[in-house]
Design a protein that fits this description.
mainly alpha, 16 helices, about 0% strand, about 475 residues, two-stranded antiparallel ribbon
Length: about 475
């Protein structure tokens, strides 16, 4: 009878979870006192979708114009002159844009142009990582060190690296909807680039008669080495966005009433929980937007980047790496490459300005929209997934146009019904479906965050 009189100990489903695990809260029962909050920028659906579309198409323009740009600059200069010119011009243009918007838009009045957007060690680390991986990637693509048909398909590895960084560094569980969305995008990307990855006789719409035409002047050992370097560069690029996300979110200075643990936000805050985008419908919602401007941050990243690029000039002297074997050759290539960006007689420069200035504009839009989208979503995985959506679109583009080596002129119109086109059309809907699920989840999270903040915050916090 003692067993019948034994009291039942009340318990919950959460008792079976460890303290270090994130609780994936059901969407119909939001937790009012949920502790893992994020303070995000208030934004509308139109603004969010506009930034996302601009990010996709600016990435597409960079993917299309970069190989044409590199072919043209190698006629008289080298890729170091390409990197240095774009870094310097981007810094100047970002500074001009920042000065204009500071005096035109009142919400940027509190931003001091000469004040760093974050502590200088963080800013220096981000800038060094960003431009170092950029130099590695550009040098790997230069003169077909990585064989041509592998260059674009392998860019999809950025999303895989960003996904892996989440699991290794976030130490939290993801909800099945988020895992499914990112996995769906990865599968779609693989389908979209599978034909280009395997076809050695076609690259960027141009059919080759011999496999050797795709390799350039390099041996297979050199190709293998640079392919590994290229993969490392893509890994560093994904690490840059992951680190940028962490530093942006931990840079926010919230009021004293706010629990400091709420600021420890990583990729899992947007990818792990159903109620992850916890915001406060108060004046603090716009604090991040006022304190960290995307143009201001981009400007200072490129200011530091100028010194990073200048400090890497010696890389052009390394055999099998740069084009200049000594100081005089390096200065000659660099000077000619910079001159051709501004030379009116473009016949001697393989029409470099036709590619350089559109590329610079697309790059500026890409930098601003990638930073803005990262702030809005607070997720490096979501940002990289949006960027990689341009890969299937690039496959479709190269089925309509094709790039002829050493061809003067922008592109050659040559529409064809190829395997590259079929693969891109098969993979693109899958990628868009995964992106749609992520977008829908983001809006649902923001909706519940407002509902929870209105019911859980004391009235003293409201304006």
């Amino acid at each position: 009878m003692d067993e019948e009189q034994e009291e039942l100990v009340p318990g919950t489903d959460d008792d079976s979870l460890s303290e270090n695990e994130d609780h994936c809260l059901p969407i119909d029962k939001p937790a009012v006192n949920y502790k893992h909050s994020i303070f995000s920028v208030e934004h509308t659906k139109i603004e969010f979708i506009t930034v996302q579309v601009l990010l996709i198409f600016s990435t597409l323009c960079v993917l299309v114009l970069l190989p044409l740009y590199m072919e043209a600059v190698n006629a008289k200069g080298d890729v170091y002159s390409l990197i240095f010119t774009n870094t310097l011009l981007s810094t100047v243009l970002f500074t001009i844009i920042m000065v204009i918007i500071k005096f035109v838009y009142s919400k940027h009045d509190q931003i001091h142009i000469l004040k760093l957007p974050m502590r200088w060690p963080k800013l220096a680390l981000l800038s060094i990582l960003y431009f170092f991986c950029g130099v590695i990637i550009v040098y790997a693509l230069d003169r077909k060190r990585v064989v041509c048909h592998l260059q674009d398909p392998m860019k999809g590895l950025m999303l895989v690296w960003a996904f892996l960084y989440y699991f290794f560094f976030c130490q939290r569980f993801m909800c099945l909807r988020r895992i499914f969305s990112v996995t769906l995008i990865i599968v779609g990307l693989f389908i979209a680039v599978d034909y280009s990855l395997c076809n050695e006789f076609r690259c960027r719409g141009y059919d080759r008669l011999h496999v050797a035409d795709d390799r350039g002047q390099w041996t297979w050992k050199v190709h293998t080495m640079w392919t590994v370097v290229y993969i490392i560069g893509l890994a560093l690029c994904a690490a840059y966005f992951t680190l940028l996300e962490h530093m942006l979110l931990t840079t926010i200075e919230m009021p004293q009433e706010t629990n400091s643990a709420a600021l420890l936000a990583t990729v899992s805050n947007t990818v792990s929980t159903e109620n992850s985008c916890f915001t406060r419908d108060t004046a603090e919602d716009t604090y991040l937007y006022k304190k960290i401007s995307t143009v201001h941050l981009a400007m200072w990243l490129h200011v530091c980047g100028v010194f990073v690029v200048i400090g890497l000039f010696w890389t052009d002297f390394i055999p099998e790496f740069g084009k200049g074997s000594n100081a005089s050759t390096f200065l000659n290539y660099t000077f000619n490459g910079i001159r051709c960006h501004f030379d009116l007689n473009q016949k001697d420069c393989s029409n470099l300005s036709i590619f350089s200035w559109p590329f610079l504009f697309a790059y500026l839009v890409f930098v601003i929209t990638s930073l803005k989208f990262l702030i809005l979503t607070q997720s490096a995985v979501y940002t990289v997934a949006t960027m990689t959506t341009a890969l299937p679109l690039a496959g479709i583009w190269w089925s309509v146009f094709h790039m002829v080596p050493l061809q003067d002129g922008l592109l050659v119109w040559s529409p064809s019904f190829s395997g590259e086109l079929i693969s891109s059309f098969l993979g693109l809907p899958i990628v868009l479906a995964g992106l749609y699920v992520l977008c829908k989840s983001h809006f649902r999270d923001c909706y519940w965050s407002r509902m929870i903040s209105n019911h859980s915050l004391p009235s003293s916090h409201l304006t």
